[in-house]
Amino acid sequence: MEAMDLKAIGAGLAAIGMIGAGIGVGNIWASLIATVGRNPAAKSSVELYGWIGFAVTEAIALFALVVALIVLFG
Question: Where are the residues marked Reversibly protonated during proton transport as a site (predicted)?
């Protein structure tokens, strides 16, 4: 196998972390919607935590993308 083939495999493996982040973001929004659906008065107190959870989970996806790009082009 050539070096570029191995780099592509490594980048693909590093990008697997983005799958988990996508699942995590879906779980965060599903939980937030379910919480607000059950208790609409709690929206103002749980919405901030939903956004913080989204940001942290999305940051993990960006880290996985950066690692994949470093492996591929580094």
Answer: 58
